[in-house]
Amino acid sequence: MKHDRLLQYIHGRHCEILGLGVSNLPLAKVLCELGVQLTIRDKKPPEELLGAEELIAGGVELITGEDAFDHLSGELIFRSPGIRPDRAGLADALARGTELTSEIELFLKLTDAETFAVTGSDGKTTSTTLTGKFLTAEAERRGKGKVLVGGNIGAPLLDRLPLTSSDDRAVMELSSFQLMTVDRAPNYSAITNLSPNHLDWHTGMDEYLEAKKHIIGDSTLRFVTNAECEVTARLAENLRVQRNGDVPAIYLFSSKHSSFAELFPNGAGKDDRAIYEKDGAIVLSDGTGEIPLLQVSEIQVPGRHNVENFMTAIGLTYGRVDPSVYTSVAREFRGVEHRLELIRTLHGVDYYNSSIDSSPSRTAAALSALRGRDIVIICGGYDKKIPFEPLAEALCHTVRAVVLTGQTGEKIEHVLRAHPDYREGAPEIYRESDFFDAVSTAKRVAREGGCVLLSPACASFDAFKNFAERGNTFREIVKNFEN
């Protein structure tokens, strides 16, 4: 592949990559192929870095160890999303005039493809996946254009830059870590919702929200968000008041209200739209009429939160696809791995893997989807320093038993027992330090006709590399249960 645009942008600058992770390994290989002066820095030793040996053989300088990020000398620095842009070494480099960027930022800056992006505290992966599926179905229907899906969803995009043209679409999930330094926003942007998250990494809620807002910028043509989330609704209202002309258009969605006036009580621009459910259908309204786009009964994945995920993706793609693709995708879509994924049914008990649920609000949404069932839930994991009171509320009202594990197990139990609606034994509380023991305990206390749900409400880093490894471990344990 020819990387002419990338090479022109770099124009002989010494490049440094901070953190050789999933997103930066393809970037490192591309920069190595281009023959630029490249230094890679990572705290891990070389033997733990995937692809390091090949890169060193290609002439890349590798600096590792605890002081790897000290004394930066590059003129163009690519940071891994997990590295704060204000860390001491970076601050000194920026003061010297160094440019700080990232793999996803540079893709947004250089691509000719139309760009669609989703961020939020919950629902962003499913919404991103659906957006990609809608656009892919349209590309196949037209027989024209390609659709790339990546970003925080797992696949880097910059190495595919030469494959993109103005006929193509790029869909990405963006985390707050990635968005902190983005200076070119996507064309079509969505924030699914916002609630406290990643407060172990961000300096506080204000910084977290400010990072998320970077998904909207001068290049944004449309902004889609949740009218039922107080924070995002206020953000949309401020944008409506402050914007020049009618760009970006604001698309508000709601799973609770059913009229344009309810979603835009203070007025709207001529290109603003409301998306809501009415008479069993997801409809779009401009304030003068309603267009039914998808029968809710066609959606195969359970839960009101998944209806909202469809609304998000519809908001991003309306007018860019034929409406028929909404129904065709809804009929085939069975969800994303690790999100209310039914693993098996054993002795009348359904086992669901929702390892992606790394916040209390996400777990509450999963429980809502299973409301009415006899639920045994497995919770706990790495402590992101977010409040567990919302989780306690959901547990008190929806589950019969909770099995707590991981770093936050004790903390969750304390908050749960302190909740005013908690009664001894309702829900039943079990504590297991070992994850295998937690799953086995859930199996033991589950009842026929009920379900076991892995929905940790926490990140996985106390015991697993990521949520996928946690979910895969749960899947293997459950599949190995004897019949």
Level-1 CATH class name of the largest domain: Alpha Beta
What is the domain total for the residues? 3
Query: What is the second-level CATH architecture of the largest domain?
Result: 3-Layer(aba) Sandwich
* Topology, number of strands: 20
- Computed structural class: alpha/beta
User: Which strand order do you get reading across the main beta sheet?
Assistant: 7-8-6-9-10-11-12-13-14
Architecture overview:
This protein is of the alpha/beta class and 483 residues long. Helix content is 34%, strand content 20%. It has 17 helices and 20 strands. A 9-stranded mixed beta sheet has the order 7-8-6-9-10-11-12-13-14, sandwiched between helices. β15 (341-346) and β16 form a beta hairpin. The chain starts with a helix and ends with a helix. The model has no long low-confidence stretch (mean pLDDT 91).
